[in-house]
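Severity: low
Component: inverse-folding endpoint
Summary: output formatting inconsistent between runs
Steps to reproduce: submit the following structure tokens with default settings.
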């Protein structure tokens, strides 16, 4: 059976796991460590370091080192290094490629299929970017699994009995809280709250600002634009923060900090205790507790309470978090179960569930945002409320506002704000080819589908003619994730051409079943490139890439036989 690996692609650390029989197993990297820093150093197009080796050289090579690329996934931001630009997807693909390679070494076999976890509050663009990173790393991303759902799965999938589970996941860059109900073999997510930009790196930034502020006041020097010094200080600050989870106080000490200039050398020394640090992060931790209680309420856990609290993510080790959670949830104690590895383990379990035909455990997740469209006057109309179970499908009928109008633009967004402009744009879709009529007479039904990866698919149909293909849904590029779909049609067309060429050369060597599959896929792909169904395009894209891979294998085999 094909192995499906589970990958926790984290802001600061990543991990990969697989199943060993019925148990998830975290795979050590080439240095024997179970977690790999999500750090990438690009020293040249063919000289890329990932993980510990990248982290270790970060201080002396800050300008070529990228950390926390996950934070800017799907944002359109690029990194410029050595005159070249790299997208966050590319940077993350280097990390994924390394994890894949470590897994292949460990398992002694090639690995293609993966489950990649994402924060439950990742937007559509961030999810598509994660998928793209997987694709660039040569992986078939079988599912994007929400991180807290993965943690709950790893925590409870072998535990008998029904439970109300709360997952509090505070990592390096993101916060998620999810309430799940385990009933028999079914895990249903009931509610999910979170913040994509709240995590350990924010705590680091607050402490760094305090330390630097104090140093600047005393020395009247400013080092904020010195990448090497800042990198060095960042590392010391993070170390001090971690130390404060077990000690009452610690000292941040950097001898000869900025001592290269004229005059006496300057040492940086700052004594920080827990209370001072807690004061700095108090507002952010309170925010996580507020979101936790909102999730508890919308899950209906308020009265009977929570059976299991699962803490996930390195920052959930901070004692202040435990104090607040105990108080808010009325718990006597909190216990930590492997917060650094639990997400990757859950992803591996999900991988086994997908490849296992017996379907022993079911996972039902929900959408994290309202899905809606913009209507005149910058208003946002929800068409599918958040916390709806996925996959989900809904439709709305649109009409024209002027006579003989043959196209309508629909702006699809995600978010909670009443003003459309304050929500996250998924893209503008142009419905063209509408049968001409007087204003208000046209009836275009637009279907919105959210799949199990929480990706949104839009299709349209002219209700009067019933013609699906006549109404064309074209993403109008506005720099968001949906713009990818224009490219996908082009890519599918190019792949069809390539498969056709290879097939023309190879077909007499292939068995009938494979030939039929290829012909069928070419037909479907050709239809998809001229039609309006984005989902079909993505499916064909994947199918064609798989066929090309298999054709290469066949070609290699027949050459070897000759
Ligand atoms: N004992 C500790 N006390 C406080 N913070 C800690 C401790 N151990 C780790 N951390 C912090 O946890 C964060 C890393 O956690 P983790 O590896 O779970 O995050 P991640 O998976 O990379 O991020 P995300 O899930 O947000 O994408 C870092 O900010 C690190 O400094
Ligand atoms: Mg994480």
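Observed output (run 2 of 3):
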């Amino acid at each position: 059976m094909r192995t499906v690996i589970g990958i926790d692609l984290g802001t600061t650390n990543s991990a990969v796991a697989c199943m060993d029989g019925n148990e998830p197993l975290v795979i050590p990297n080439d240095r024997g460590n179970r977690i790999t820093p999500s750090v990438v150093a690009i020293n040249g197009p063919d000289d890329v370091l990932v993980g510990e080796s990248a982290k270790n050289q970060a201080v002396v090579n800050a300008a070529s080192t990228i950390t926390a690329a996950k934070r800017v996934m799907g944002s359109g931001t690029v990194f410029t290094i050595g005159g070249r630009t790299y997208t966050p997807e590319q940077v993350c693909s280097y990390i994924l490629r390394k994890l894949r390679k470590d897994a292949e070494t460990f398992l002694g076999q090639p690995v293609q299929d993966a489950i990649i976890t994402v924060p439950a509050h990742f937007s559509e663009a961030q999810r598509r970017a994660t998928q793209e990173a997987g694709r660039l790393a040569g992986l078939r991303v079988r599912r994007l699994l929400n991180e807290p759902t993965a943690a709950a799965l790893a925590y409870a999938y072998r535990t008998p009995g029904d439970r109300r589970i709360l997952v509090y996941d505070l990592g390096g860059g993101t916060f998620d809280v999810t309430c799940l109900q385990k009933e028999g073999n079914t895990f249903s997510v009931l509610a999910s709250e979170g913040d994509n930009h709240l995590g350990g790196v924010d705590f680091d930034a607050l402490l760094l600002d305090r330390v630097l502020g104090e140093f600047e006041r005393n020395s009247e020097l400013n080092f904020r634009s010195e990448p090497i010094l800042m990198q060095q200080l960042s590392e010391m600050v993070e170390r001090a923060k971690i130390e404060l989870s077990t000690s009452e106080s610690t000292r941040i000490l950097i001898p000869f900090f900025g001592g290269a200039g004229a005059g006496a050398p300057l040492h940086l020394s700052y004594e920080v205790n827990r209370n001072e640090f807690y004061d700095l992060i108090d507002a952010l931790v309170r925010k996580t507790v507020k979101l936790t209680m909102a999730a508890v309420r919308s899950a209906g856990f308020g009265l009977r309470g929570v059976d299991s609290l699962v803490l996930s993510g390195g920052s959930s080790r901070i004692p202040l978090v435990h104090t607040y959670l105990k108080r808010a949830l009325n718990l006597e104690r909190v216990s930590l179960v492997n917060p650094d590895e639990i997400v990757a383990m859950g992803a591996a379990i999900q991988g086994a569930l997908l490849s296992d035909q017996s379907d022993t455990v079911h996972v039902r997740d929900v959408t994290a945002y309202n899905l809606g469209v913009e209507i005149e006057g910058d208003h946002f109309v929800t068409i599918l409320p958040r916390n709806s179970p996925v996959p989900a499908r809904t439709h709305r009928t649109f009409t024209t506002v002027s006579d003989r109008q043959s196209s309508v633009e629909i702006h699809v967004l995600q978010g909670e704000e009443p003003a459309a402009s304050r929500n996250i744009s998924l893209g503008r879709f142009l419905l063209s080819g509408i049968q001409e009529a007087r204003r208000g007479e046209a009836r275009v039904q637009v279907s919105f589908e959210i799949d199990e990866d929480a990706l949104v698919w839009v299709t349209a149909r002219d209700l009067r003619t019933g013609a699906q293909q006549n109404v064309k849904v074209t993403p109008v590029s506005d720099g968001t994730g949906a713009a990818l779909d224009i490219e996908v049609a082009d890519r599918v067309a190019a792949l069809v051409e390539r498969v056709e060429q290879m097939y023309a050369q190879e077909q007499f060597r292939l068995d009938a079943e494979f030939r039929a599959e290829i012909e069928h896929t070419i037909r479907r792909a050709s239809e998809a490139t001229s039609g309006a169904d984005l989902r079909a395009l993505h499916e064909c894209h994947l199918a064609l890439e798989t066929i090309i891979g298999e054709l290469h294998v066949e070609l290699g085999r027949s050459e070897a036989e000759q």
